[in-house]
Structures are given as C-alpha cells and as structure tokens.
Amino acid sequence: YGLLLRQDPEMAEVLIGELERLRGGLQLIASENLASPAVLAALGSTLTNKYAEGYPGRRYYGGCEVVDRAEQLAIDRARRLFGAEHVNVQPHSGTSANLAAYAALLQPGDVVLAMALPHGGHLTHGSRVNFSGRWFDVVAYGVRRDTEMIDYDEVRELALRHRPKMIICGATSYPRTIDFAAFRGIADEAGAWLLADVAHTIGLMAGGAVPSAVPHADVVTFTTHKALRGPRGGGIMCTAELAARIDRAVFPFSQGGPLMHAVAAKAVAFGEALRPEFAEYARRVVENARVLADALAAEGMRPVSGGTDNHLALVDLRGFAPSGAVAEQRCADAGITLNRNAIPYDPEPPTVTSGIRIGTPCVTTQGMGAQEMKEVAALVAGAVRAPDAAGEIRAGVRELTAAYPAYPS
Ligand code: PLP
User: What positions does the domain Serine hydroxymethyltransferase-like occupy (predicted)?
Assistant: First the structure.
C-alpha cells in the first residue's frame, strides 16, 4: 500500500483496516473467501482501463487483442475445469448471471419453480423485492419439516401442477447435497428448463468435493468469489445449443462493457482451481464443515437437517440463544464474523431469525483443519452463550488467527 499511503492516506487507512480486520478475526461467512495475491494482482491491473463490449474476436472496440487473450483463457480454463460445452465469464455478479439466464430462457410473466427464500433460496429465485419476483410468476418449493431437506416429491408435484417454464435448483443456505439428476428428471417430465444456481458450491464442484450440476442442467450460473476463491463476479455455463442465447442475454441485453480486470482475475482463479491442491482444499472445506457442525451439536447448537454435506452449517439456536441477530452481535463482539440466517419454518422475522449460518471456506484457506474446527465451535458457542466473556473469547480468536493468519506477511 506504499503508493496509496503517499497519495491517499485516508483510503490507504481503510484498506489497511480491512486487512487488519481479516487478520484479527475469524471469518465464518459461508459466501466469503480470501482471494489469492495472484487474483488480487489481476484485479488491480491495467485491464480495468479497457472497453471490450462483445466477445473475443468479435468486439465493438479497437485494441482488444490483449484482453481477448485474458477472456479466452478464462473461458478455456472454466470449460476444462467443469467440462462445460459453453462458458460466459462476463457477468458482473451472481445476480447478473441469473438475470441473464432468466432473460435467455423466459418471457416476463412466465412461471418459474424455485426454492423458497426462507428455506434457503436466493433473492433472485423469486423474492418480491427482486426482478425475479416482480417480473415472473414464481412458485416456491421448500424443505420437509421432519428432515429439513428438499422434498423431491413436492417439487415434482408442484412442477406437474404449475407447469413452470423453468425450474431452479441451488441455494444460499442449504447444507445438503442437491440431487441434480432428480431435478433433471422432474424438469423433463414437466417440460421445463433446468437452471442450477451453484453460486455457493461452484468451488466445491471444481474440486470434485460435491456432485457437478453441469451434466444435468441446461444452464448453470455461479459466482467466482465464494468457495471458488476468485474475484467478486459471476459466470454462466450452458449447453452448446443455448450458447448464443446466453451470450446475447449477457451482452447486449443486460450488461455493457465487461470488467476485463475481473475477467482476468477469474482466469487466474480457474487456473488455481485446476491444480491438484485445489481438490484437496475443496475436500478439506467439506470435512471442516462436517467437524464444525458435529462440534457445534456437541455444544448444544443444533445443525439444521442434522449436519452438512458442503461448506456450511445452518444452526438452529432455539433454546440456546435469544435469536440469530443476538448471536451474530455477540460473535461480532468477540471477533467472530458470521451471519444470522432464517431456519426452515422460522417463527422469527428475517431481521431477527432463529439461526446462524457458518461456513468454512475462509478458515480452510488459512490452513485450519479438524482440530481447529473444534476450537472454532467452542469459541462460537462461548461467544453466544456468555456475552460477558467476550474479551476472553476474543483472546482465543487472536491465538487461533495468529497461528493461521489470513494473508501472512
Ligand atoms: N445465487 C445464490 C444461490 C447466491 O447465494 C448468491 C449470493 O449469495 C447469488 C446468486 C448472488 O450473487 P451476487 O451477490 O454476486 O449477486
């Protein structure tokens, strides 16, 4: 930060403050990660200057021969990583990717079947405050009360009753494996497109730690900044048949010039994910989440659905803490960052909630393993249970993060 310190000390202080926050606390937000210095270098590059509307070899601006190579590398690496027929790496975010997927496959007013937000779905899966709920007729499926897992019989029954034009699978806070083949079968029976939104699990898919949606879905949308550990951004994979529709839905329908520095950083992240170490990372993220969920259960914090198959645990705090919001604040006071989260059939409103969501991508990037997950569970439980002991918990957090620093210098 030397240059920025000299030119703009006010902003340099902000960046240093964020680095200190990352280094000094436990980052347990399931949708976050710590991008590598190589990814950050690409993000902070001169590629931010370039206008490149269009696609490699077909641009509406001159001087794109260099950035074309960046985008082609990103596309080729993603195709290799996921075995996809076609990849678009331009969406600015997961939301932008989903907007383009809707635009490619649907007309306003069409029926969509997607997971209910309070059961783990995302805003872009039909929330009334989002384009998806405003412009489309969204029917929601949820999880069963007893198992807290997706009820495929209910999904099928809703699909055959409402005949959606598109079914969405994939979620924001669902700790279990999603059966993409079952969704494919239901979509075929109902004559619907299948969109898999794997924003959360794409990194685990890349490392082979969870099943891939690519062989089953017509369109797969994703983010690059969660378990995949790339820059903030999105992407879309699809069949060759849908390639032109998807590309047109991104540019020119819903975006202008791509963020070429972000596209280059996505290529760097895909390159990292192609290495054998990344498969080991993805495997450890899932293993750590399992150990963490079990250790939280032993502390008296009930994991929704009884455990996890991926990178996150959703914890039911009823009987343990006043609410998810209170737990979030108590953890924050102790240097632990996580988020309140609705649990299925939550009696509390979304601003309060009865649960928290805890993820392992960041702490696994920092090198923590099973033993440390047990310590993390004890720290979280201690922070939630005993707000008066926040100072003591904070000291424990400092000890752990000093042993496994974020961005070691
Ligand atoms: N889809 C799912 C399932 C998500 O969990 C998220 C983000 O959390 C998104 C889409 C949106 O991603 P973004 O925040 O990049 O718009």
Answer: 6-379
CA of 395 to the centre of ligand 1 (A): 33
**CA–CA gap between residue 24 and residue 336 (Å, rounded):** 9
Mutate to test the pocket of ligand 1, among 32, 90, 172, 219 (most ligand atoms within 8 A of CB): 172
390-403 vs 9-24: helix crossing angle, rounded to 10:
100
- Look up residue 34 and give its two tokens: 């710590």
- CA 15 to ligand 1 centroid distance, Å: 24
Q: Which residues of 151-176 are buried (b: 16+ CB within 10 A; e: fewer)?
A: beeebbebbeeeebbbbbbbbbbbbb
Measure the CA–CA gap between 262 and 270, rounded to whole angstroms.
12
Q: How many residues make up the chain in this entry?
A: 409
Region of 194 (left: φ > 0; alpha: ψ -120 to 50; beta: rest) is: beta
Amino acid found at 234: G
- Answer for the pair 153, 290: CB distance below 8 angstroms, yes or no: no
Q: What is the DSSP string of 133-177?
A: HHHSEEEEE-B-TTT-SB-HHHHHHHHHHH--SEEEE--SS--S-
- Burial of 408: CB neighbours in 10 Å, binned 0-12, 13-18, 19+: exposed
Please indicate if the annotation marks 26 as binding a ligand. no
339-364 per-position pLDDT tens digit: 999 999 999 999 999 999 999 999 99
Cα of 94 from ligand 1 centre, angstroms: 5
Which residue is closest in CA terms to ligand 1's atom 14? 94
**Ligand 1 pocket, mutate which of 125, 132, 200 (most atoms under 8 A from CB):** 200
Q: Judge if pTM exceeds 0.90.
A: yes
122 assigned binding-site residue: yes
Nearest by Cα to 41 from 287, 268, 346: 268
Which residues are annotated as catalytic? 51, 53, 197, 223, 226, 232
Distance 191 CA to ligand 1 centre (A): 26
Q: How far apart are CA 82 and CA 87, in angstroms?
A: 10
